[in-house]
Fold this protein.
Amino acid sequence: MIAGVKKPQLLSSLDLTRWAEGLYQLSVSEPPLRGAIFTIEQLEVHARALAGSHQIGHRQGGDQLIKRLNNSERVIARCHEVMSRAHAMGRRLTPAAEWLLDNHYLVEEQIYLARKHLPRGYGRQLPPVANGEATGLPRVHDLIVELVVHVDGRVDEEALARYVAAYQSVTQLTLGELWSVPIMLRLALIENLRRVAMSITWQRAHRDRAWVWAQRIDAPSEGHEAALLVLADMVRANPPLSTAFVAQFTQTLQGRGSTTNLALPWLEQRLAEQGQTIEEAVRADGQAQAADQASMANSIASLRLVNTTEWHAFVELNSATEKILKTEPAGVYDQMDFATRDDYRHAVESVARRGHFAEESVARMAVALTTEHYLADSTGVAAHVGYVLVDDGKRDLW
């Protein structure tokens, strides 16, 4: 029994047919976030190219991220229901489907955390992309989605750090964008799980259709003539011969004697018209299952990584503001605790946002003003960068 799966009442053959037909209505509108797999060096090249191609808009979009998260939650829940029912009916599940069932609790937890850290309007605070498929979405979201695509969902801390650093070697991210990286990573991984779940559910629909047709053709009590009539019905129904359908159909009829002699030659002919053989279709189905399993397992493992990564350290390591403020001549900033340094960085962020300045420009101005005060009186209160960021010297930044 798969962990966490309750066994619902089993369906009759007629109900099963209707269930399969209902599943068949599901389609894969978006493929998994799966592209060419890049090495870390290739990821760095890609990040720099992405930074050069991103055009930033001035008009923030609506709450698209929340809408996408809500859609992912609905779809994953539906797919989980489908796989639970298939398991209860004794259907063989693909490895990716087993991963979904065994880790559904974790996925639900991650969706909850994503929603908790994604308040309404949050996306409007982040610079939006003004060109390409990601138009209207936060730039940092597109950056992270592209990472997930080219590692097949398998994110590690080194790859993430070098990828973000490479992007920032061309264009600096804001402090808010850096803090949003774990949120965007969760969202991208959850979206990838939704896409993979839709893929395996679509395959499940085709397998169930194939199973129903094979069972009807091979019904032992109906005889040879009845099998011919069912095969004729199937020919008229003209089911799409996906690799999942072909694999399940041939597996179900394998070794069934005269029934196989009726159905498989027809299937071979239909596939030949499409330039394919049964063996090729079965092999392609196996490859698709392996790819979905890898994407599902990688995305779930990466969600666990999001939980354990020290994001405070990540932000400080990648913040241009942090690097600039550390150059204040008094050297006090670098000795402060994280919370105080974070207050100073947010002060820079606030000034930059109100004045429509780049954050690093504000940070440099703060250090420049502090340096003037330091040269005039190295022991005075104004000799520390905090004076112009959070004290009476704030007015000098305007």
About this structure: DSSP finds 17 helices and no strands in the chain. The two ends are 66 Å apart (CA to CA).
